Amino acid sequence: MEGEVFFRMRGIDKDYPLAGESVHALKGINLDLEEGDYLSVLGPSGSGKSTLMNIIGCLDTPTSGEYILRGRAVEELDEEELAELRNREIGFIFQNSQLLPRLTARKNVELPLIYAGFRPKERRIRAEAMLEKVGLKDRMEHLPTQLSGGQQQRVAIARAMIGEPSILLADEPTGALDQKTGAQIMELFQELNDEKRTVIMITHDLNIARHARRVVHIIDGEITEGGLRDA
Amino acid sequence: MRKRIRKGFIMWGESVRMALDNIRANKVRSFLTLLGIMIGVMAVITLITTVSGVSGTISSSFSSLGVGTLTVNVSGSDQKTGMTPEDLEKIAALDTVDGVVPTVNLAGRVGYGKKVETSLSVTGRNAYYFQVNEDLIIQGRGLNFIDDDNHSYVCVISQNVVDKFFLGINPIGETLYVAGLPFTIVGRYEEDSGGGVASIFNTSPDVIVPYTTALKVNNSDEASSFTAYLKEGADSAEAKTEIGDAMDVIFDFEEDCYTIASMETIEERMETMTTMMSSLLAGIASIALLVGGIGIMNMMLTTVTERTTEIGLKKALGAIPWQIQSQFLLESFLLSVFGGLCGAAMGLILSYILCQVLGTTFVFNGGAIILGIGFSAVVGIIFGWAPARKASRLNPIDALRAV
Fold it and tell me: By residue range, what is the domain housing residue B43?
């Protein structure tokens, strides 16, 4: 839509109560993104990058500040609306792939479509197409335990992609993988970005972060450089 | 709007499937949890069905036993402890009364030849008893007025006595020893047919002797209870008043010398007793259900803790809190309803067997089954609510970090 803000963060603060004291996990974050961006958020552990990911992913709301995703002010949404927004706009990829162990690869991929209200037949067709795309055509009916770490992460990526979200949000996507498999996953990310998919990758590893077209550094809850495109 | 409904429909279908999957994945645990509910429902249904069967049998045997009779128990006063034969005649002569049958219990062992039995009961009755109950005698004769007047040492025996002493022998004319005294057997009578539990309330004795003889053996001349048979068409309440007046005269207007019970009042009392009993038993059984419910709650809480990651993930993928809650609620609901169904089936089988053993009629009690299953469903929802709510309230971030 013309004129609609895709992604804008202004003055995001996040405070946590911890043992009676308030911890400032994020301090005045400003971040802009356009569709088709490939961004890495690079920072050591404890820098606030997980908190930032949760806020980007609408899993958590900021204490103060403004966050607009696809024209909607996230901080004004209730829990149910947040769930819907996550379902539609965000594709999560976690470090440990987080597949449900009792479901087959295909069923795992179908999960977001269940919450979006797709019929079983349509879910199946889409899930199969998506698994084929990540190169797991012949592994669809396997359980996660029957797949290698790299294959599991591919299933997770297929699951993240199936709802055609605006943003693919990955938290240390190669953290649990060996170097070679990690590189393959990075290639897959590149392909997805080439298809104009927005990718945000949270990592502490500079070698991984380098794959992105833009890198922002986060230290002590503050983005030190590159947050605003025109800055 | 339509889309929302469709979405809800799909969600419910998925929730049912996921719930079943999870129950199946923890077969042993689910079964053990289910067992609590199962036993509870089984107990409720068995108790209600059995008790209603028993009370039905009791009341039907009562009504067959005693329409048109009043039973008078005499406790007597200091001057006069019971009813003499003359007193009984006075009662028998009343307008509403057709006749009276005194009951005089005789303690003592019963023997034949060298065999002695302690478990047989001996009661003194009169000729009138055999006159009004014509069908009673199946062999020989009943007692007659000559036996009463002469204090004859004769007796009428039941099948029970035949089984004990006279297998393959014709008992008529044989001599039976009661409390050491010889009685000539003159007849055999058939006990009231109501067997099983009803026999507890069956007053049929094993040996019937003339009551006058029984009084003599007891060294007394007063009977402590009798049954008045009313004239046909006589009003029970009217007869009760008339007998009461006569009894007052006999006992010189002293208070608390006797009680008059019609079968109707006994029946009523029985009914309140069985109702009380069944509600008491159902109450006890529902404690089992309560314990079963706590078992379900415990299991669901464990499940929620175990599946923290799964819950977090589903939330991240777009599940709204209510979807998470409904899934867990459904799980405990299905679990307990399934337990309820199993329990109902087992309860029916068990109560059928019990009814056979107790000799009462098995009555299919739909109300008890609905109650049992409905109760277990309610238990599932109530005890599943808190764990399900806990699951839905989980913060997705904390949930995902739990690994």
Answer: 7-62+269-401
